[in-house]
Amino acid sequence: MAKSTKGEQSKNKLIKCAAKLFLINGYNATGINEILELAELPKGSFYFHFSSKKSLAIEVSNYYSEKLNEWILNVSQDKKWDEFINQLVGKMIKQAEDKKHFGCPLAVVGIEIAFSEPDISQYYYKSMKDLIGMFSNIFEFSGVPSNKLDTISHKAFAIYEGYLLYYRVSKDVDILKRMRKDLIEISEEYK
Fold first, then answer.
1. What is the maximum span of the chain, computed from C-alpha positions, in angstroms?
2. I need a surface site. Which of 35, 56, 75, 113 has the fewest CB within 10 A?
3. Residues 45, 33: contact at Cβ < 8 Å?
4. Is-contact 142 81, C-beta < 8 A?
5. Per the database entry, where does the chain bind DNA (predicted)?
6. pLDDT tens per residue, range 84-105
7. Could you report the per-residue pLDDT of 102-140, keeping only the tens digit for each?
8. What domains, with CATH codes, occur in the chain?
9. Which residues of 158-191 are buried (b: 16+ CB within 10 A; e: fewer)?
């Protein structure tokens, strides 16, 4: 694997720091100076890599999607839906108990910018559709009939995101436990 240049490292650091701040504080409440401060980089480095905060937000969407996809693929490998959900949500519960879980980054940022920044929100929407597709693949592996995959995947996604937003507002870990229960039960409806 080729070693990344100093410029690539700076760009990646800006994306990673912005991703963290957008998830915790929101897109609109995060300023470029805060991102630079967390990244410990000078202002010029931001504008060398990004023409605007919007262009950074698009890169952050790609970063969120890549990280979420890696995590889902890793957790779901050779697992049926129930086992996948137990492991996935179990990790979320652990993070929440440690005060390190802030909800789904795609939904958190996507909802905030849905109407104010529609040119950016389309990237978050695409990532959400990809997640639904991943759910569909896991349900298929779990033996759900193909004619029911679209319905169950969308329903599971709605339950998943709804509970994660509910958790974000309440910070009540029991919400995540309810999510796990409901996501496991949904697969029984379609067998």
1. 56
2. 75
3. no
4. yes
5. 31-50
6. 999 999 999 999 999 999 999 9
7. 999 999 999 999 999 999 999 999 999 999 999 999 999
8. 54-189 (1.10.357.10)
9. ebbbebbbebbeeeeeebbbebbebbbebbeebe
Please give the model's pTM, rounded to 2 decimal places. Answer: 0.90
Task: Report the residue count for the chain.
Answer: 191
Note whether 167 and 96 are within 8 A (CB): yes
Distance CA 92, CA 127 (A): 19
**Residue 46: both structure tokens together:** 């931001």
From CA 152, how far away is CA 132, in angstroms rounded? 10
Return d(Cα 144, Cα 98) in angstroms, integer.
35
In this structure, of 1-5, 61-65, 67-71, 159-163, the range with the lowest mean pLDDT score is: 1-5
